[in-house]
Amino acid sequence: MPRIELLVIQPTPFCNIDCRYCYLPERNSKAVVAPETLVNLFSQVFASGWVQDCLSVVWHAGEPMVLPVAFYRDAFQIVERAKPSGLTVTHSFQTNGTLVDDAWCDFFAEQRVNVGVSIDGPKHLHDRNRLTRSGRGTFDKTIRGIRLLRRREIPFHVISVLTIASMAAPHELFEFYVEEGIERVCFNVEESEGDHVSNSFADRDVETAYYRFLSEFWRLSAAMPGKIPFIREIEHALQQVIRPKDAPFNNQLVEPFAITSMDWAGNISTFSPELLGLKNPRYRDFLLGNINRDVLVDMPQRANFMDMLEDIEAGVAMCRERCQYFSVCGGGEPVNKLAENGTFVSTETTYCRLTKMRATDLVLDALERVQPSPAGPSGPSLPFEMPVRVQDQPTR
Ligand code: SF4
């Protein structure tokens, strides 16, 4: 039986800005999900038996905050009414932060919403890619939103998209986060997705640049304890490297329905959330049905689901057979295999070389320095205390 862990909902495809690397094909559409669609979604999800003790709901894929707070008050009530007792639902927003105001802060605090703000570092880096439709930078509005979140003591993290230019500036990014009191950072590399072809991936030195960036950023953070206590890429790599040998690897991206995505019109997809809006000659699209017309629990029997699953599983099997990083990766991200290799039935991508291989190398290199002999001390606290020197080259 599938197990839904994460529900990604597109409340609207519209975005109030127009980033250069955006892959969302319908970001000019002002369509909005109907309340009935949310009722159908949550009643089917909870009746399916596919959710266990908790469900994480992310409002994303378009700018969620272009809709009013009142929309989400109604939407959260729909969820509460449909939810079986004893089940925990957490809500998260991924936002560009330009529309944060006091009313939003009240709502976030009251509903304990997890907030992620996309900001690409200081103004001159952020404004290269995060633009309005008229081509103006959005940094000033985003940083105003972040400062308000801080003033109102709303917990948040940031996601910064790294380009070749920002990978060359770990000190500048670190100082920027510290100055702005940003304590939880996540890095996404500018990747090829949908129609967007990554300029950064085309750079032949991107792997070295990424390794050096992460290494130096981690060293800076270790040298100033408490300033940036959470760096997602390091935390994840540590969790995967330092875990019991027989612990099951959970790659939600290749588990059917572990991540279930719905667009504003009620169309359902699974695996990588980005697949929801994409088209492809082999699969046409990645839609498994519509929650307003179809039955969720019947979707695993659909022919296009079977085709996707077969190919994704074949790609994972190839990874398991060929890749020495499989135990910390679990077979990668289907959407990146499709974008970079043209098929799910494949292994390496630039994306996985960066985010899985080089990040793992970094943690392994640090562990080797603190734990030179097999009889040495061990435990998950070790690498946090160990500043990492900048490496000229990835070593594996
Ligand atoms: S790192 Fe890449 S090649 Fe290795 S298992 Fe992950 S996706 Fe497959």
Strand order of the largest sheet: 7-6-5-4-3-2-1-8-9-12
N-end to C-end Cα span: 38 Å
Strand content: 5-15%
Bound molecules: iron/sulfur cluster
Order of helices and strands: EHEHEHEHHEHHEHHEHEEEEEHHHH
Q: What is the radius of gyration?
A: 21 Å
Total number of strands: 12
Q: Biggest sheet: strands, sense, closure?
A: 10 strands, mixed
The 3D shape can be described as globular
Q: How many distinct helices? A: 14
Name the helicity range.
25-40%
Mean pLDDT: 89
Structural class: alpha/beta
Low-confidence residue ranges:
375-396
How would you describe this structure to a colleague?
The protein has helices at 35-47, 69-82, 102-111, 123-129, 139-151, 164-167, 170-179, 199-202, 206-223, 232-241, 303-322, 326-329, 334-341, 350-370, and strands at 6-9, 54-59, 88-95, 114-118, 156-162, 184-189, 230-231, 259-262, 267-270, 279-280, 284-285, 289-290. It has 396 residues and is α/β, with parallel strands linked by helices. It has a ten-stranded mixed beta sheet. Strands 10-11 form a two-stranded antiparallel sheet. Helix 1 (35-47) links the parallel strand 1 (6-9) and strand 2. It starts with 5 loop residues before the first strand and ends in a 26-residue tail after the last helix. Iron/sulfur cluster is lined by residues 319, 323, 325-326, 329, 331-332, 347-348, 352, 356-357.
